[in-house]
Design goal:
The protein has 501 residues and is of the alpha/beta class. It is built from 13 helices and 23 strands. Bound molecules: flavin-adenine dinucleotide. Flavin-adenine dinucleotide binds next to α1 and β4.
């Protein structure tokens, strides 16, 4: 829910600023959106409002040890800006890259930090959005209007992780921290640490803490698949040795990675057992023949049903092989004063317990939306290709890929938005909305994503908040970059799904 303490509406006398486009958020999507508007729609005025004190989004708000990407930066980086470092990058490296994009394209003058948007209202009479925001430095209530709202707010609540409530947590005498709310003063040197979780975050934190902590125990309810390999792309290295320009290295490496990922994704559906064998074989190479891989690293789901994190140089497994970290696969019965008692009766002792237990899904940036005076029921809308929604005029939303880098889709949506805005200008239209066509009326209306296809916890917990999908490519976010890279540029803006006014 929106933070009501921040809902100070400006009085009517207060000045309202107008922009053609208003971008919510200065994460990798919002900065990309600003770049696309600047380069493809230079005649449009726009502003980016960001609640944090700087850009970066995910890569600014997460502060846990070792924070890094789990997908490669050739595809997580923008199409238009070569990535020059190792493919798996730290948060600082990603922010440096984003900072360069902002500086090189003079985007900074469009971004206003410490501006929290609380309320957004669409008015069909004026064909404008009105946004109420708070300047977090001065406390001043601000009002903006815009013709088009470009939602780049991400998909989870920043600075408040999902913390399950286990019995007797208050009894623990040590410190409990969530990976999304990392305390800057946390000194873990020489301490016994339990990390609860099995996803990419746990797999990053554990090797990062392992050298300094006395010991790190990964406590997981069920295992996750990981991919491992060298943190380098041989092709990129070779092209650089040949003196190929970085723009070319970036493009060729992207194509190679995407080609390989496509092949791999198809194999996870066509021959899941074989892929599973390969993934587990790679883990076995680090942990040796006697390690209990069946219990600790063999998930019950097929590969790619949850995000597959890349472990550079197998550092998680190296930590385990060296005895600095260990894995317990069990459920939590309750906390004790010394640590955690598992359901199988084992007491794990710790000085610090880290919950790497995921997010709260947050679909609209905790902004209260109204359409012509009525509160928006986002979950009742149907999505057009995961970026527009029935009944919501003049708005696009960036929701990236799970099985490919998020930014690939942010770039595709950027091209689409610019094309749509130009089309509206060329045809003199001020409003666009998507609506089911006659041929869509008997289409089954389904939840946002099929859990058989992809089912991480935060999505399953938050599915009721998300819009619906149909069973045609137009009416769903199909998670398939390889199809959408050709389909998006071919979208007919005159299709009956688009209603203009
Ligand atoms: C630890 C971690 C690692 C990840 N690694 C990868 C990876 O390797 N590859 C990958 O593809 N994906 C990864 N993801 C997913 C990742 O979140 C996205 O890929 C990407 O960074 C999202 O960018 P974004 O700009 O869309 O959203 P965010 O990074 O969430 O940024 C959204 C911004 O909008 C601002 N905002 C939100 N609401 C408001 C409001 N009401 N008013 C003003 N501002 C607002 C926020 O403050 C934030 O700065 C990772 C996620 C996490 C948490």
């Amino acid at each position: 829910m929106p933070d009501t303490a921040l809902l100070h509406r400006p009085d009517a006398a207060q000045q309202t600023e107008h922009f053609d486009v208003l971008i919510v958020g200065a994460g990798i999507s919002g900065v990309g959106a600003a770049y696309h508007l600047t380069t493809q729609c230079p005649e449009k005025s726009y502003v980016v409002l960001e609640t944090e004190e700087t850009f970066g989004g995910t890569w600014w708000t997460h502060k846990y040890p070792g924070i890094r990407s789990d997908s490669d930066l050739h595809t997580f980086g923008y199409r238009f800006k070569p990535w020059i470092g190792a493919p798996i990058a730290t948060a600082d490296e990603i922010r440096k890259y984003m900072g360069d994009v902002i500086t090189e394209n003079d985007l900074g003058r469009h971004i206003r930090y410490q501006h929290r948007i609380n309320h957004a209202a669409w008015d069909s009479q004026t064909k404008l959005w009105t946004l109420e925001a708070t300047n977090k430095v001065t406390g001043q209530a601000l009002r903006f209007t815009c013709s088009f709202l470009y939602m780049c707010q991400g998909y989870y609540r920043h600075r408040q992780g999902y913390m399950p409530q286990w019995p007797n947590m208050e009894a623990f005498q040590g410190r409990i921290v969530h990976s999304e709310e990392w305390p800057e003063d946390l000194d873990y040197s020489g301490k016994r640490v339990i990390v609860i979780g099995s996803g990419a975050t746990a797999a990053t934190i554990i090797p990062a803490m392992a050298g300094k902590a006395a010991h790190v125990t990964m406590l997981q309810r069920s295992p996750t698949f990981f991919r491992t390999g060298r943190n380098a792309i041989e092709l990129a290295e070779e092209l650089r040795t040949l003196g190929v320009a970085e723009e070319w290295v970036h493009e060729i490496t992207r194509r190679k990675i995407l080609f390989e990922q496509d092949k791999f994704t198809r194999r996870t559906f066509a021959e899941p057992e074989k892929v599973k064998g390969e993934l587990l074989g790679a883990v076995r190479n680090y942990l040796g023949p006697d390690y209990d891989i069946a219990t600790h690293f063999t998930p019950s789901y097929r590969p790619w049903r949850q995000r597959l994190a890349f472990i550079p140089d197998g550092d998680l497994f190296q930590g385990i092989a060296q005895g600095k970290a260990s894995v317990v696969t069990d459920e939590i019965e309750r906390f004790t004063d010394k640590g955690i008692l598992t359901k199988s009766g084992q007491e794990l002792e710790a000085d610090i317990i880290v919950a790497a237990t995921g997010f709260h899904l947050n679909v609209l940036g905790d902004i209260a939306f109204e359409i012509d005076g009525k509160p928006l029921a986002f979950h009742d809308t149907v999505t057009y290709r995961g970026m527009m929604f029935t009944g919501i005029p003049n708005m696009a939303w960036v929701f990236g890929y799970f099985r490919a880098s998020w930014t690939l889709r942010a770039d595709l949506v950027g091209d689409f938005v610019c094309r749509l805005l130009k089309h509206m200008d060329a045809t003199g239209k001020k409003q666009v909305e998507v609506a089911l066509r006659e041929e869509d009326h008997n289409m089954p209306i389904l939840p946002w994503i099929d859990p058989e296809n992809f089912n991480p916890g935060y999505l399953m917990r938050g599915m009721h908040l998300l819009p619906k999908r149909g069973d045609k490519p137009e009416w769903q976010h199909n998670q398939d970059y390889w199809a959408e890279k050709d389909e998006f540029p071919a979208i007919q803006l005159t299709d009956a799904a688009f209603k203009y006014a």
